Amino acid sequence: MNEVSAFYTGPGQLLAAISSALDAAGVDRTALRPPDLAAVDEFHIRGRRATLEIIEALALNADSHVLDLGSGLGGPARTLAEVTGCSVTGVDLTPEFCQVATALSEWTGLSGRTRFHVGDATATGLPDESVDAVMTVHVAMNIPDKPALYEEAFRVLRPGGRFVVYDVLQGEGGEVHYPVPWAADSSTSFPATLEDMRELLPSAGFDVISEADSSDESLAWFQHMRDKIQREGPPPVTFATFLGDSFAQMTANQVANLSERRIRTVMFTCSRPA
User: Fold this and answer.
1) For residue 24, what pLDDT band results from cuts at 50, 70 and 90?
2) What domain range is 215 assigned to?
3) Per the confidence metrics, is the pTM higher than 0.90?
4) Are strands 157-170 and 263-271 parallel, antiparallel or unpaired?
5) CATH number at residue 212
């Protein structure tokens, strides 16, 4: 197990903790839908709202097969499958994440359209030109070899297919405050700069269709979520289920990092030339 996987690996009780939290809140698991889990399984900045933007950028239909590199607990994959009817294959380095993602897809009735495998996002083992679209959501911050990541996405994508990267980038305001949800310290944190990305994606072969900086929206989203929790209380299950005692400090650091422009959130929409 490498350092990144070790950071994300808990004591093996994540699924039980999610189940207990849902039961305690009286949630009927037989009627569970992806939005009910978004606070825990769409733990990227701006959550489900950002995932819906990714869906639009990928231009999917029910026949699409999407690869999610660094799929985590599978929230974005399930949202794609539910909204568009497409099928999604997720690859993640952390075995427990794949196990929990598989279970959550069963709970939400989406196991037929989502699959999750333990693997390396830079070397998936999938055939060349085998998927219609690729996405990666808040993943590359943990991957030092970004050329390998983007070259792998290009390799497996069919000509004409789209690739969306939604990531946290290094900002101009100084070094990142740690801990953050993707790293306890800088030893496993490798955020690219905007200038890096403008070189990396074309170098991998992609045509960059658009880039959208959502940093201001991200900061407003944190404020909105804080206000909503103060009014309504927390959702029955949140990412705090996984992060535990570190959650409050990590969230505070995320807000400070955005406020001080130490990080920025940017979405790149790319295509593989036909």
Assistant:
1) confident
2) 3-271
3) yes
4) antiparallel
5) 3.40.50.150
